[in-house]
Amino acid sequence: MDNDVKNNIFYRPDLDIERSYQTTGSILKTTPIEVPASPKQTTELEDILERAKATQEELLRIRKITDAIPIETAVILNDIIEKEIFQGIDNIKQIEELIEQDKIDEEEQSRVSIYEDNTHTSEPEEVADEEENKVESEEDLFWKDPEPLDLTISVVKCKEPNSLAEEQYIKDIALLREDFAFKLRSVMEEYIYPLYTVMGETGLDSLTYLNLNYEGETVSGVKLDEKHLHDIIVKNQVLIDEKNRKFAKTHSTNNTIATMMALDVVSQERVKYYAENYDVGLNTFAGIFKRNYLEEIRREYEKKYFKAKVNMYRYLNSSLTISSDILKKTLETQIAKCYLLTKDVNIYARKDYEETAYENTTDNTMVDLDKNETTEIKPAADKNTKKEASSSSSKSSSINDKIDNALSNVTKKLKL
């Protein structure tokens, strides 16, 4: 700083910003960042269609893996799954038809529009400078003519009540099937994953042997430490048989079809009463009575439709509840069998049914357990009858030998 400036007590520094736009550097050209396109918005029906297709694929996948569960439960469960698969085919077609109809309606509505054009052809008058600077009052602003508008108002046609009622039924079916399919998947996962893990540890590669009936009186070699597993298997087999009988009685083919048809029939009647014209003949007392009666019937079918939908939901969920209970008991039984196999227990031991049946016969009769027939036993009067008896006993002994050899081969594989 100069001395003159230092000695000047009235000196005031300049506080303005020095603006200099010169630079020795170089400016790089950058390309603009591409903004990702917003995802295409889907309508409610398109979303329902995607979910219905996902449900159909899930049910088909579950149908392929139901062979892993015992045959008594699989027969009943497969019947319900197959009915839902066939219903899903019709449901997907109906949703696609609704989407196509909506697209046709949108195209027709796009051709109809209302144009409102309030353009002013008169030229604005010249305004003096004093009038330009004059502040307009609120009243003048309120009554001032609006600016020219160019609006396009689309006319949206409302759907008929019967079309809305039918659309609601199609959506409800899709949602009921989706809830059933994904709950059933979780039930199957809770059964299959632990079972195959234990089978891998044991060395079994097939469920055929595990699904064989466990005869507690015949199986021997169970130690005291494994006695509780023996008791669990015997007890669970009794419970599983009882639950399978209950499952077959409550969820038979006829009950499944009746529940599905009840919802379908009530829905059709509900749509029919929504299609009625309620504005005809209102100038007479009889016409008013007719309208009130139609509205009362429509309300009744609304209640019936809701009740049928709830019954369908309860029916499907009850099948899941019973299946889950059966599979949990079956899983406990299978795991206990696998553990006994690791302890060299022959869980496939069988009685000689022919010998025990022969010993327990009375009045010279013998029961053939395979054919469920009763035959009379005659005394051996000659050599031919003795030869026939000896040949039949040799055949039965050869069959038993084959069974013993097969079971021994299985136990050898498990030991390896």
Folded structure, characterized:
By secondary structure, the chain is mainly alpha-helical. The chain contains eleven helices and four strands, in the order H-H-H-E-H-H-E-H-H-H-H-H-E-E-H. It has helices spanning 3-7, 44-65, 71-110, 129-133, 138-142, 161-202, 227-250, 253-274, 285-342, 353-359, 383-415, and strands at 113-117, 150-154, 365-368, 373-376. A hairpin with a 4-residue loop joins strand 3 and strand 4 (373-376). Helix 3 runs antiparallel to helix 6 (161-202) and helix 6 (161-202) runs parallel beside helix 9 (285-342).
As a percent range, the share of helical residues equals: 55-70%
Shape designation: flat
List the quaternary state of the chains. Answer: single chain
Distance between the termini: 100 Å
Percent of residues in beta strands: under 5%
Low-confidence stretches: 113-124, 361-389
Q: How many helical stretches?
A: 11
The secondary-structure element order is HHHEHHEHHHHHEEH
Mean pLDDT score, rounded?
75
Strands, total number? 4
Comma- or semicolon-separated keywords:
416 residues; mainly alpha; two-stranded antiparallel ribbon; 11 helices; 63% helix; 4% strand
Produce the secondary structure layout.
Blueprint: H1 3-7, H2 44-65, H3 71-110, E1 113-117, H4 129-133, H5 138-142, E2 150-154, H6 161-202, H7 227-250, H8 253-274, H9 285-342, H10 353-359, E3 365-368, E4 373-376, H11 383-415
Antiparallel strand pairs: 1-2, 3-4
Helix pairs in contact: 2-3, 2-6, 3-6, 6-8, 6-9, 7-9, 8-9
